[in-house]
């Protein structure tokens, strides 16, 4: 019998993750609880890109941010050339690989893909006096990186370029979640960001569900803590290396060692 698993990322980001899970023999159910939308007004970003020469670093914390930056560069200049004239730092391997595939060099990636490791490993930290940093990012999320780099002396221009919202069809989502968890009896749920946890918990609560046998698979200590805060007492799986490949391996390991599914 195939093990069932629920994946909750934005639908556009599910393709590769779903493919890898299916290759491992999982029966995958898609249940996006987050909808990524580009900000309606990107004037501040376009101004910053037009003056990119004034910045020492560009920080890209997600593929979403990198994708928007690339699209705006092409719109403004017709190419991605200007991105090779600035040092770029990414938090995750996926964002780094996205840029490398476009022949854009990446100067810094932390060993562990979390904000704390990003800051502590950032070149010359904590001596960043008068360093100019452009940080286009989501409107929601932690401000840890901006605060720490600013305290270290950097001038950080943080621009919100996309939003991670609840999907608009909440009533359908409620019915679908009830079907998945009660009828299909799915137990493993992947939650790959704190905002995804919050959105899933909202839909779960609205669905009047009260289950004790769910297993949450997440990436990173911050997401894990958000799961524990919202679903105290539930089983949480987290790999030591914060990538989806390692998460899949950890899920397989859990299934093989516990024989609970």
Helix content: 40-55%
Described by strand count, sense and barrel closure, the largest sheet is: 5 strands, parallel
Shape by Cα distribution? elongated
How many helix segments?
10
Question: Brief description of this entry?
Answer:
The chain is 41% helix and 19% strand.
Key terms:
about 260 residues; alpha/beta; Rossmann fold; 5-stranded parallel beta sheet; 5-stranded mixed beta sheet; 10 strands; about 40% helix
Please describe what this structure looks like.
It contains 10 helices and 10 strands. The chain is elongated and about 55 Å long. It is α/β, with parallel strands linked by helices. Helix 2 crosses helix 3, helix 3 (63-77) packs parallel to helix 4 and helix 5 (115-121) runs parallel beside helix 6. It has helices at 14-23, 43-50, 63-77, 93-100, 115-121, 144-151, 170-183, 194-206, 221-230, 244-258, and strands at residues 4-7, 27-30, 35-38, 57-60, 87-90, 132-138, 155-165, 188-191, 215-218, 235-237.
């Amino acid at each position: 019998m195939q093990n069932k698993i629920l994946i909750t990322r934005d639908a556009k980001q599910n393709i590769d993750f779903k493919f890898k899970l299916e290759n491992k023999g999982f029966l995958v159910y898609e249940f996006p609880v987050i909808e990524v939308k580009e900000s309606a007004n990107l004037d501040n970003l376009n101004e910053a890109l037009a003056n990119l020469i004034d910045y020492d670093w560009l920080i890209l914390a997600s593929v979403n941010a990198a994708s928007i930056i690339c699209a705006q560069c092409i719109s403004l200049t017709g190419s991605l050339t200007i991105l090779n004239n600035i040092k770029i730092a990414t938090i995750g391997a996926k964002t780094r690989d996205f840029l490398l595939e476009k022949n854009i060099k990446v100067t810094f990636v932390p060993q562990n893909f979390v904000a704390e490791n990003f800051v502590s490993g950032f070149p010359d930290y904590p001596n960043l006096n008068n360093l100019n940093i452009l940080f286009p990012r989501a409107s929601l999320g932690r401000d840890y990186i901006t605060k720490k780099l600013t305290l270290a002396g950097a001038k950080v221009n943080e621009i919100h370029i996309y939003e991670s919202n609840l999907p608009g069809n909440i009533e359908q989502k409620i019915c679908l979640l009830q079907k998945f968890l009660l009828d299909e009896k799915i137990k493993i749920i992947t939650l790959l960001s704190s905002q995804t946890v919050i959105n899933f918990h909202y839909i779960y609560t609205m669905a009047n569900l009260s289950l004790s046998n769910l297993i949450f698979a997440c990436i990173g200590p911050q997401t894990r803590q958000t799961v524990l805060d919202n679903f105290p007492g539930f089983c949480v799986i987290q790999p030591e290396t914060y990538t989806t490949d390692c998460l899949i391996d950890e899920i397989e390991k859990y299934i093989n060692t516990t024989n609970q599914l």
